[in-house]
Design brief:
Length: 170
């Protein structure tokens, strides 16, 4: 269950609750920031993701997964759901970002609205945990994640950020 507060998140708390641009904050906290693409494909979002975006359960969306890296280490696994209807108008280029961070595009437009952040402790049985942990050397007991919906001109996209152990928890 996604919660309005990240109770028990420890050292990740200040990263989780910051509603500003995570991309900008990561750039500022490292000498080298990079985005590594993992996958981008048309697929069905998870049922809870589809509900948040007002999609039919069988409707496909563009799913984009990347790692945000600081100084050569993966620090955030980002999972974005971009409905087909949202890839037009002002957001027509979001499906072709490649190694450019989605956060830069979202926070560059002052008209973009964001829903309140929701939080979850992901355990090994959760699909997002499994995909995020695949970029790690080991298997942590849990991973903290946050998500929110970004809206512009009637279009919405869902962004989930999973914080990986290491640099950010120090």
């Amino acid at each position: 269950m996604w919660l309005p507060r990240p109770a028990g998140s420890g050292a990740y708390l200040h990263w989780l609750v910051d509603a500003g641009s995570l991309t900008a904050r990561l750039r500022a906290s490292s000498d080298q920031f990079a985005v590594t693409g993992i996958t981008q494909r048309w697929a069905r979002p998870q049922p809870d993701e589809a509900r948040l975006l007002g999609l039919q359960l069988r409707e496909r969306a563009l799913l984009r997964e990347v790692c945000l890296n600081c100084d050569g280490s993966p620090v955030v696994f980002a999972h974005s759901v971009l409905p087909r209807s949202s890839l037009s108008g002002s957001w027509h280029d979001l499906g072709r970002l490649g190694s450019r961070p989605l956060g830069e595009a979202l926070f560059a437009n002052a008209r973009v609205m964001r829903t309140p952040l929701m939080f979850r402790k992901l355990l090994p049985g959760h699909a997002l945990y499994q995909r995020a942990a695949a970029v790690l050397q080991g298997r942590p007991a849990c991973l903290w994640a946050r998500r929110s919906v970004f809206m512009l001109e009637g279009s919405s996209i869902l962004v989930t950020e999973v914080f990986l152990p290491g640099v950010l928890d120090q």
